[in-house]
Amino acid sequence: MVESIGDFDEHVNSYSGELEKALGGLGGESSYFARRKVKVLAESLVGQLPSVICDYGSGIGALIPHLHEYFPNAQIIATDISQLSLEHLQKKYPYVQIVSPDMLVSQSCDLVVMSCVIHHIPADSRMDVLRRINFALRHGGSLCIFEHNPINPITRRIVSNCIFDEGVELITKKSLRTLMKRVG
User: Fold this and answer.
1) Parallel, antiparallel, or unpaired for β 52-56 and 75-79?
2) What are phi and psi of 116, to 5 degrees?
């Protein structure tokens, strides 16, 4: 199993508060961003309704209610290396299927969403994670990655003030594209 930069088990109960504190007056409420991401995703998939969606690196489930809202007929799978986060998520959203990242089934997902996850994966493990996701995607499936913009000074300030982002390495769009091409 790939390790994460940051111990999310330690922040399960304080995650939302810590994120709001890191955003300060700069970025609004974190729930706004989660909903906005899923709205953008849904708009980009016009005419394509995924039947199985995997929230990879789901944490405590910030995207889950919005995925359920925009894709009400889809089965939602959540996966994360933080077992305590998954337990929290399962209690709050019992309709979600919990799967270990290592147990994703071949060609089982129409859509995999990664929201602010890549920068928590050590750089030398990112290709392995993306290969695992590629393995889980059905032919013609989609991978949607939302990541922080490392060029934006406000983003860098928020990340530097966020307790669970300590030690992360933000990834540029160019580096992510290169990595995706290498994975295929």
Assistant:
1) parallel
2) 55, 50
Q: How far apart are CA 158 and CA 132, in angstroms?
A: 30
Q: Give me the sign of the Cα torsion angle 95, 99, 104, 105.
A: negative
Could you give the CA distance from residue 5 to residue 167 in angstroms, rounded to a whole number?
7
Residues 3 and 25: their CA atoms lie apart, in Å, by 32
Segment 12-39, tens digit of pLDDT: 454 455 555 555 555 555 678 899 999 9
- Burial status of residue 130 (CB atoms within 10 A of its CB: 0-12, 13-18, 19 or more): buried
**Amino acid found at 54:** C
Distances (CA, A) of 34 to 58, 89, 107, 136: 11, 15, 26, 23
Nearest partner of 7 among 173, 178, 164, 172, judged by Cα = 164
Q: Say what the pTM is.
A: 0.83
Q: How many CB atoms lie within 10 A of CB 99?
A: 19
Span 134-165, pLDDT tens digits: 999 999 999 999 998 889 888 788 778 777 67
